[in-house]
Specification:
Elements: H1 26-30, E1 37-43, H2 48-57, H3 63-72, H4 77-83, E2 86-89, H5 94-100, H6 104-113, E3 122-124, H7 136-141, E4 147-149, E5 161-169, H8 173-184, E6 189-197
Parallel strand pairs: 1-6, 2-5, 5-6
Antiparallel strand pairs: 3-4
Length: 199
């Protein structure tokens, strides 16, 4: 962590690296994303990419505690969690959950703040191909109708401050699609929180 997880300036709404003193990237200034804040601990590169593949695909859910500690050591993460009403993990489709056996984003959210973590509000309603297998354009357009809010629990989101938890952010398509659904349901503020950001 001392060698490969040093904090660096990032865009406040998409977490891409920026020169020091510049709060937002040009793309976010031009077309603001549906996230109010976006935080990432590390770049999706060595040694994190290998560890995250183990966490996600090689049946090593115990790494959730390590990654939660990595996130908590990242500037602004603890205050964002404390200020949040709920932590919502990015949901997996039923098919993906059956194959993997666990939702790595849920494990991470539970390690960050078990009492605030909720898996029953944001739902994945379609099974799309794994995002890492798709080209950028397919990622940006293929998720528009993939998420929904449980209609019986929508009142819990009215005026709520949320932290949307995921493992990796590449184009942001998944996080943005989920955030749009949550904002439409009445969420007041959404922070995207990811372990790693593709740069």
């Amino acid at each position: 962590m001392a060698e490969f997880a040093q904090p660096r300036p990032r865009c406040s709404t998409c977490a891409l690296p920026l020169p020091a003193g510049q709060p937002q990237c040009g793309a976010c200034l031009k077309a603001p994303p549906p996230l109010d804040v976006c935080l990432a601990a590390v770049p999706y590169a060595f040694p994190w990419a290998h560890l995250m593949a183990d966490f996600k695909f090689n049946e090593q859910p115990a790494l959730a505690k390590f990654f939660a500690n990595l996130l908590k050591a990242t500037p602004w993460v603890d205050p964002s969690i404390e200020a949040a009403d709920l932590l919502l993990p990015m949901p997996l489709s039923r098919q993906r959950l059956q194959v993997r056996g666990y939702n790595q984003a849920l494990l991470l959210a539970q390690q960050l703040h078990a009492r605030k973590a909720r898996v029953d509000l944001l739902l994945r309603i379609t099974d799309t191909p794994a995002q890492h297998t798709l080209k950028r354009e397919q990622r940006l357009t293929g998720l528009a109708h993939s998420f929904a809010v449980d209609p019986l629990k929508v009142s819990l989101l009215q005026g709520a401050r949320l932290v949307l938890v995921d493992d990796v952010m590449t184009t942001g398509a998944s996080l943005y699609a989920a955030a749009r659904v949550l904002k439409a349901a009445g969420a007041a503020h959404i922070t995207g929180l990811v372990i790693a950001r593709t740069e």
